[in-house]
Amino acid sequence: MPAPSTQMVIDSLALTLTYTTVPYANHSLLAELVWTLPGIQTVETRLDASPTSTVGNEPAIGLTLFFEPQHQGSIEKNLLALLTDHTLTGVTVGEVRPITHDDWANAWKQFWQPTRIGQRFVVTPSWEQPEAVLKQDLVITLDPGQAFGTGTHATTTLMLEQLEQLASEQDFSQINLLDVGCGSGILTIAAAKLGCQDIAGLDIDTESMEAADKNAAANGVGHCITATTTPLAERCLTPMDGILMNIHWPVLAPLIPECALRLKPGGWLLISGLIQKSVAPCTQCLEANGFTVESQHQHEDWYCLKAIYSPI
Question: Which residues are CB-contacts of 131 (< 8 A; sequence separation ≥ 6)?
Fold first, then answer.
């Protein structure tokens, strides 16, 4: 890799994987597995619809892994071991390339357009003006920067749809919510738009906290949301009515007992970021910690669970 210019400030490195011979339905498995690699900051999924990059009639899938420069050696080593251990042949590993702050923050702008989700949500980038907005619509304007959460990923879509359903079943103005791994703040903003006035957002990434704060203010709901980088295990045991977690299973698993400590009896936990093989162990973990899984929802290859805290 050529030496970067001395004027270039490298925030991260990026490594792209493309797989055209791996069964299309398994792409979410690899997407989940790479999150287990120590040092990963975020993972971007893309479709390559070019005629030479298809499996049957399905487009090829690509993943771009973002990580801090000091983790390059371990990421490359552990990635090869992961592919071998899970017999994921046909994966092309690209060259590592440097990513500057501006590269990453502006990458979304090439592809992201206003998106309608559920019955009322319209999620739009701050640099676009959504069309055909209806009177009852709830418009969420975002500039995610380096933070995860634009509404275009299936896991975020599931969470928004289920939040809307929950708001139809209870008065959101009377409850308090916690979003663990809030990223851009899209879910906290959505909850505020649905009437919730007491929301806490947690994320260990400072870039995400900055984005979440700015997005909340831009949507006129900053007064409803408190964002912090304090880890869940160190957060005070304030009883919550509901908790949101859109996080991949390997990261999610140890957080479930912490959620049980922070939910009121009868409170709900909404989880996404699960692939099919993770649903059963997640359900078992929930039940072992006093939860009852009330419903399961699927979008593309991803799953969302709604669980009620019902300790004996």
Answer: 114
pLDDT tens for 258-294 read 999 999 999 999 999 898 889 999 999 999 999 999 9
Tokens of 95: 């060259």
| pLDDT 10s digits, 99-118 | 765 655 555 565 567 889 99
Instruction: List, in order of start, the domains of the chain with CATH numbers.
Output: 10-107 (3.30.70.100), 112-309 (3.40.50.150)
**Is residue 211 a contact partner of residue 184, using CB atoms and an 8 Å limit?**
yes
